[in-house]
Design a protein that fits this description.
CATH architecture: Roll
Order of helices and strands: EHHHHEEEE
Largest sheet: 5 strands, antiparallel
Distance between the termini: 22 Å
CATH superfamily: Hotdog Thioesterase
Number of strands: 5
Oligomer: single chain
CATH topology: Thiol Ester Dehydrase, Chain A
CATH class: Alpha Beta
Mean pLDDT: 96
Low-confidence stretches: none
Strand order of the largest sheet: 1-3-4-5-2
Number of helices: 4
Structural class: alpha+beta
């Protein structure tokens, strides 16, 4: 995978990028190990089922990490810094579920050297939105 190198002048409102990825049990286990968030809702299928969920629920912050990947790798890539992320989680993401992460440029401000994106994360199996929101970023100077 190559990291995009888009500059602010390369991007316009309405530009969009998506990628699909599997949120595996291993990914959730590794995220839990890194963060220490070992809530049984994230770690135990039986516990999650007793609470009314299909199986283990993916950490919301892990979903936010996929949004960070969208920005830092694809749109715009290496020339930016995430400033603010505001996500809502209308339905859970589950382990071993394919999701599509999409960002659409909402606004570009050349004078402020910044842009904002609308983002969505969709469960491909259930066609259900697991996260949506807005992200603001600033462009960094190339060195």
């Amino acid at each position: 995978m190559e990291v995009a190198r888009l500059a602010i002048g390369d991007i316009s409102a309405g530009d969009s990028f998506s990628f699909d990825t599997l949120v595996s049990e291993e990914m959730v286990d590794r995220f839990a190990a890194i963060t220490g968030d070992i809530s049984p809702l994230h770690m135990d299928d039986n516990f999650a089922a007793q609470r009314g969920f299909k199986r283990r629920v993916v950490h919301g912050a892990l979903i936010g990490g996929l949004v960070s990947r969208l920005i830092g790798v694809h749109l715009p890539g290496m020339n930016c810094l995430l400033i603010n992320m505001n996500l809502k989680y209308p339905s859970p993401a589950y382990t071993n579920e394919n999701v599509r992460v999409t960002g659409t440029v909402e606004q570009v401000s050349v004078p402020a050297n910044s842009m904002s994106l609308q983002v969505t994360v969709l469960s491909l199996e259930r066609q259900s939105t697991v996260a949506r929101g807005k992200v603001a970023l600033a462009f960094t100077n190339e060195r």
